[in-house]
Specification:
globular; 9 helices; mainly alpha; 230 residues
Length: 230
């Protein structure tokens, strides 16, 4: 019960679910890199991870992790605001040593959540959900390559995804080292090391997603084999 009743326990749940989600994002980014070089190979992965029972179970587990992470994040934010009371309005200057992302994690979290809902609509709804219910949109449910082309030819989606990915970078770069701090790995030496590691890792992770969005919009992905960039 200490995971629910104590602030430390709630932070541990936040950290554990956050690390699990980072691992999923790493897998997702690695999978997305494949689409840059081979549409057929990417569609093979999509078919393997379609509406099969193991993929559905994994999706349910991932959904549970997301819900836990967001609920506990909101809970901790409200708890911290209640503890500060009116004192949070007394100082408008940024405290020394406090990152911008740390002060705006709730706003960043809301942007990340909205971006995730958009991503679910564009891909999960049109792929796994469509396969489960037996309907088909512009592309076949297992045609992930086609859905990426269809989505990122729209400049509005491109801008929305870039905003989402930037917000996700800020969220991850702070949240990753904050999780390590929660686990107690925050000695004088490793405190700064974890901050550097989190920023480098988050940057590489987000770049892996961003390059897919930009190259497919520009028509420069090697797997498209068309245009002046090929």
């Amino acid at each position: 019960m200490w995971l629910i009743n104590s602030s430390i326990g709630r932070k541990v749940v936040m950290a554990l679910t956050g690390v699990a989600l980072v691992l999923f994002l790493t897998f997702h980014m690695s999978m997305n890199v494949v689409v840059l070089f081979s549409g057929d190979a990417y569609n093979m992965i999509c078919e393997f991870l379609g509406a099969n029972w193991y993929a559905v179970v994994a999706t349910m587990g991932l959904a549970a992790l997301c819900v836990l992470h967001f609920v506990y994040a909101f809970w901790l934010t409200m708890q911290n605001r209640a503890a500060r009371g009116n004192s949070r309005y007394e100082v408008t200057a940024k405290p020394k040593g406090v990152e911008w992302a740390s002060q705006n994690m709730l706003v960043l979290g809301i942007i990340v959540l909205l971006g995730m809902l958009l991503h679910l609509f564009n891909f999960w709804y049109n792929m796994m959900f469509a396969e489960l219910l037996g309907f088909e949109g512009v592309c076949a449910p297992a045609d992930g390559f086609g859905w990426i082309q269809e989505t990122f030819k729209n400049p509005v989606y491109v801008v929305l995804y870039i905003v989402w990915l930037v917000a996700l970078w800020f969220h991850l770069s702070h949240g990753f080292w904050s999780a390590m701090q929660t686990f107690g790995w925050n000695g004088k030496v490793w405190f700064n090391r974890w901050k550097v590691i989190s920023q480098v890792y988050s940057t590489l992770l987000i770049l892996g997603f961003l390059v897919v969005v930009v190259l497919f919009y520009l028509g420069c992905a090697p797997s498209l084999c068309c245009g002046s960039c090929c």
